[in-house]
Amino acid sequence: MLNQYLSILEPDLPCSCLSFIFLSASPLAVAFNLIAIAILLLLSGLISGSEVAFFSLKAHDYKKLEKENSPAARRILAFSKRPRTLLATILISNNFINIAIVLISDRLVNNLLSEETFDRWGHALQKQLSFLNLTAAELARSTSFLLTVVLVTFLLVLFGEVAPKIYANMNRLSFALRMSGPLSFLMKLFAPLSKLLVNGTGLIEKRLKNKYFSREPVASKEDINKAITLAVHADKDISPEMDILKRITTFSEVPVRRIMRSRMDIVAIEKNADFETLLETIRNSGYSRLPVYEEDLDHITGLIYAKDLLGSLHKGAKFKWQRLIKTGQDNPIIVPETKKINDMLRVFQSKHKHLAIVVNEYGGTIGLVTLEDILEEIVGEIRDEFDKKEKPHFEKKGPCTYIFEAKTPLHDFFRELKINESNFDKRAEDVETLAGLVLEIAGEFPQKGQDILTEDQKYIFTVTDRDERRIKKVKVVINNPAGDSSAEAENNMPCDTP
Fold first, then answer.
1. Number of folded domains that form the chain
2. Per-residue pLDDT reduced to its tens digit, 108-163
3. 424 and 414 in contact (C-beta within 8 Å)?
4. Is 86 exposed, middle or buried (CB count within 10 Å of its CB: 0-12, 13-18, 19+)?
5. Residue 241 and residue 276 in one domain
6. Structural domain of residue 231, as residue ranges?
7. Helix crossing, 27-55 with 172-189: angle to 10°?
8. 3-state SS, residue 107
9. pLDDT tens for residues 342-367?
């Protein structure tokens, strides 16, 4: 095949004689260049394979290395703490080796083929490619360059990239152990260059980040939720984990007022109450700590812990339990209603507290939030053996009909029915409960049996129980789930409006 190609360039020579073109070179020089290229290709393959081996190590591989505690294992563990320096060393070494291969290959081609040979090829190509308007010398140089590029590219791709990387990927740990010594030497050898490269790329990365990525997040909450849904779509058993991941994406956006226990549901004890009243309140509530107030809940002065009363249970109603109230540093934390729950969690962690009182802009108590409330926002309902069995927030009456307690937190209402909060625009921003949402939409205090429709008529709210001061129960009908993400819409269940 080589003779066929050369016959185009050497039309005046018999094909059987073309192979002698290569015999003009010095055998010693050719042998030296071939050996040098072979050694450099081996080094290139080892360096390229190291990149795959080191950067494909898994967590369990590092655990094995920690147990092994050999010099090679310790070197790899040290590399894992400086991945950018390691990568820079690999790239610099590989570039030097590849440049050397190109230079030696060019020298080898010039040794095998004399300058006169390239000149003849240049003239032959000039006749064949006269439309290019190139001189014979230019075509001769181009031919030499192309031979070198084709030869080097083939050798590097096959022996310096593909084959070693496949092998290294299949034997990553053993390969990394064998190459840890040479790479440690190369990291010391190229330390100034690798440091310059790492610092330079860090500076460029910082500037690009400030210019292009500081204004907007890389992905929106909706994009992340879609990615989570797509990632676990085929695995039905992972649905609880998917819900947890989705809740984490909104964790920093939820204010304390959305998850707090409202003022009307706070269980507290008046400071002047007798001991029997305190014990009865603790027994009925089942709580381990209670706020203590003077006059009303706007003046909470401390906390009383149930465990502190264990040694005094035998004492009578005249026992002065007030001396056990935790005050000062042990007082409950006071937080505004707008505080985000991720910040609230950090406060609980830093102050080692479990309970906080939520106040409005006027300083009045509007609710109470605990550490458990925040954790439940991520993992769902947490119940232990001492929790009383609470009634669910709602009762399902039909395919798309529910009866809800009006005091249900709006956040829980949206979550239970998998309703997108944006469906209610800004109406849901200033209220905390389902009753508040109904009042916001109705614009007045609705009568019992009155239907309140949203503007898009997708949801119908009907007051089923109320007194003179507040709504107690609300019937919710999902009128058109086709464009919504409700539970029924996901299960393709029809919604019949009663």
1. 4
2. 777 666 666 666 666 676 667 766 666 766 666 676 666 767 777 777 787 778 88
3. no
4. buried
5. no
6. 220-249
7. 110
8. helix
9. 889 898 988 888 899 999 888 899 89
